[in-house]
Write the structure tokens for this entry.
Amino acid sequence: ESPEQVIATVTNCIKNAERYGQLQELINRDLLTGLYNRRYLLAQLEVAKQSDSTYPLTVLYIHLDNLHNAGKIVALSGSDAIIIDTAKRLREQVNPHDLLARLNDWVFVILSCNRTLEEVKKFAETIQTKLAQRVVKVNEVNLLTTCSIGIGIYHQQTNAQQALLDADLACTQAREQGQ
């Protein structure tokens, strides 16, 4: 092969690798918010089993409480606006060691591995306060976003997915108690 053909082949390989990386990034992202998606989150929970961090892996399960009712008032586009705004607010709260993902329509999850349990509880309170203080204006309607948060802890004796289930259960209990 000529030098030009070799260069063309290498260039094509590089472009294909870049496209593959971009495709992988798209596969791992929620299209509405740009946050990591459920698929990526669950994969990272599996990876978390091998982590030997000083602090426990904690899962914050954040459920938007009033999104269903807000959707009735401002329709789907309004719900999307609230979800996008919430994602933005949550991004402002996390640190580089946290993984922030959108689990489903009304639920966000933060995996944290660099906080004590007490710090995680304060972090959850801060998130609740910040979201509750934010008014989102949609179609001339002002909407408040509140959330319930459950915390799950990954212990070496359990699997990481159990921490997510524990956080979901704690969140359900918090919602039922109006917290």
Observations:
- Strands lie at 57-64, 99-104, 107-112, 135-138, 141-144, 147-154.
